[in-house]
Write a structure and sequence with these properties.
Helices cover about 30% and strands about 20% of the residues. With about 140 residues, the chain is of the alpha+beta class.
């Protein structure tokens, strides 16, 4: 690819991103777009038995404690006893860093704080894979 080809490609990207107001319009008519062929989803798992379904239903009703951890800090007991209203405890995280989502003390995801109807919530940004969670249990 030569310099002119590189410049042409850069100009096309700039036009597509709306950076060049003099560039020609790149609008696409939705009727001109073809649907991508998709493979049919297949459920290869064998159906579960009535006994297995009963056991699964029992497990699904077990309550767990979910918590969000903003950060951690270690302080001496002397400093802990000196804390009072208005004291600030420095945490090990920087502002804007994601929170840890813990279930029964085990990390399962990372997320960010959101406010919905004047209540705090958390939007999951990264869920730890089952393989990684199992490794941490060992």
């Amino acid at each position: 690819m030569g310099t002119t080809d590189d410049q042409k490609l850069a100009d096309e990207w700039a036009a597509a991103l709306g950076q060049d107001p003099l560039a020609p319009s790149t609008d696409v008519d939705i009727d001109d777009v073809l649907a991508a062929p998709l493979d049919e989803l297949k459920d290869d798992a064998a159906p579960i038995s009535v006994d297995e379904r009963r056991k699964l239903d029992t497990i699904m009703d077990i309550p767990v404690t979910i918590s969000m951890e903003v950060g951690r800090s270690q302080i001496s007991i002397r400093n802990l006893l000196q804390l009072n209203q208005g004291s600030v405890v420095e945490l090990d995280r920087i502002a804007g860093e994601s929170l840890d989502v813990m279930v029964n003390g085990t990390l399962i995801a990372h997320g960010e704080v959101v406010v919905v109807n004047d209540k705090f919530g958390i939007r999951l940004t990264d869920v730890i894979s089952q393989t990684e969670r199992i490794k941490k249990l060992r």
